[in-house]
Amino acid sequence: MKNFETLSEAITDLKIRGYSNDFNLHPEWIECPPLNLKLKPDEFHVDEVHRFEGATNPDDSAVLYAISSSRLKGVLVDAYGVYAESLSNEMIDRLKIDKNTQH
C-alpha cells in the first residue's frame, strides 16, 4: 500500500483507482448523498485506512477510509480525536482494521 504525504494526495489516488463516490458518516450508517444511498455496517467493507495528523494542530487530524460495497466504491474522511462523532458499536466494529484491510 502507498504512503501519502497529504490527505488530498491520498484522495486523488483513491479516486483514480475507482473510489469515485464521497461518503458521509452517521452514527448508524454511511451515506452517499448524490445517489440518495445509505449503507448499513453489514453492507460495506473498509478496504484501506490512511491516517493524517495536522502538522501544527492535533485537531486537524483525519482518517481516510477507502470503502467498497456491492454497489459502489468511495471515500470517507472523518476527523478523529475530540471532535469525532459518537458511533454505534456496529459502526465502530465495521470501521476497524481487519485482516482484509490495508493500513
Question: How is this structure best described in words?
Answer:
- By secondary structure, the chain is α+β, with helices and mostly antiparallel strands.
- It has one domain.
- Helix content is 17%, strand content 32%.
- It contains two helices and six strands.
- It has a six-stranded mixed β-sheet, with helices on one face.
- The radius of gyration is 13 Å and the shape is globular.
- The model has no long low-confidence stretch (mean pLDDT 85).
Provide keyphrases for this structure.
17% helix; 6-stranded mixed β-sheet; 2 helices; alpha+beta; 103 residues
Question: Outline of this structure?
Answer:
With 103 residues, this protein is α+β, with helices and mostly antiparallel strands. It is built from 2 helices and 6 strands.
Layout of secondary structure:
Layout lengths: L6 H10 L4 E5 L4 E3 L4 E3 L5 E8 L9 E7 L4 E7 L9 H7 L8
Parallel strand pairs: 1-6
Antiparallel strand pairs: 1-2, 2-3, 4-5, 5-6
**Uncertain runs with pLDDT below 50, 5 residues or more?**
none
Largest sheet, strands/sense/barrel:
6 strands, mixed
Quantity of strands, as a count: 6
Strand content: 25-35%
Shape: globular
